[in-house]
């Protein structure tokens, strides 16, 4: 299992979330950080950031000489240089049954600081090399060239969004954080352009929590590698995120997910 995203010294996000989740689910993980941050970027001051993108290509080349045979590749927050590097090396890992890309670049109707239309275009070019993507609502709209709109929408509109991404990029799709007209939040999924898309409803929980997308993507990736369907993996990921939110006291530090890891392991064993 290869995981590549940023690592924060303080804050339960990105690689600090994905590694323990996937290790708990029984996968031997090879980690390739895209950057090291003293803290994550939400509410803890200005972090010290060290890019590690230059290590991606030589590390991947070294790993190619080893008998790794990873069952999956999980790509999260990349940044411009790391995205370009993975564009070059991801074809080397196409034998992995699952290549999940979380196109972490935007939220709340706007791009993250430092990203622009060129980054969105680069992400569009990378996505067809993956097998599954997990954008949030804003990212999904940007990938489709739409103006971000966070207004509540119907089930049909939500499923249309997921289906459009699958049709355009040829990948399985989960769009997260979609507000529905009934007040719930949804994950809309589509496995194939010829198959109907679907919606999973989730209760909207108050507050804003960092790392929810990272945690969701890690659980989905692990569940898929354990043989679950995309829809079952999405249900498990959303349920685990909700449990972590309910255990979290200080949202600035990310989600308190560790206490739920035994539950997650049991859930997958029982499925």
Could you explain how this protein is built, in words?
- The chain is of the alpha/beta class and 271 residues long.
- The chain has one domain: Ribokinase (UDP-N-acetylmuramoyl-L-alanine:D-glutamate ligase, 3-Layer(aba) Sandwich), CATH 3.40.1190.
- 38% of the residues lie in helices and 18% in strands.
- A hairpin with a 5-residue loop joins strand 11 and strand 12.
- Helix 1 (15-24) packs parallel to helix 7 (212-225), helix 3 (80-89) runs parallel beside helix 4 (117-126) and helix 7 (212-225) crosses helix 8.
- Its EC number is 2.7.1.35.
- GO terms for molecular function: ATP binding; pyridoxal kinase activity.
Which terms would index this structure?
kinase, PM/HMP-P_kinase-1, 9 helices, single chain, three-stranded mixed beta sheet, UDP-N-acetylmuramoyl-L-alanine:D-glutamate ligase, 271 residues
Topology (elements, then pairings):
Elements: E1 2-4, E2 7-10, H1 15-24, E3 30-31, E4 35-39, E5 49-51, H2 56-64, E6 72-75, H3 80-89, E7 98-101, E8 106-107, E9 110-111, H4 117-126, E10 132-133, H5 137-143, H6 155-169, E11 172-179, E12 185-190, E13 198-202, H7 212-225, H8 230-246, H9 261-270
Parallel strand pairs: 1-3, 1-6, 2-4, 6-7, 7-10, 10-11
Antiparallel strand pairs: 4-5, 8-9, 11-12, 12-13
Helix pairs in contact: 1-7, 2-3, 3-4, 7-8
Organism: Lacticaseibacillus camelliae DSM 22697 = JCM 13995
EC number: 2.7.1.35
Enzyme class: transferase
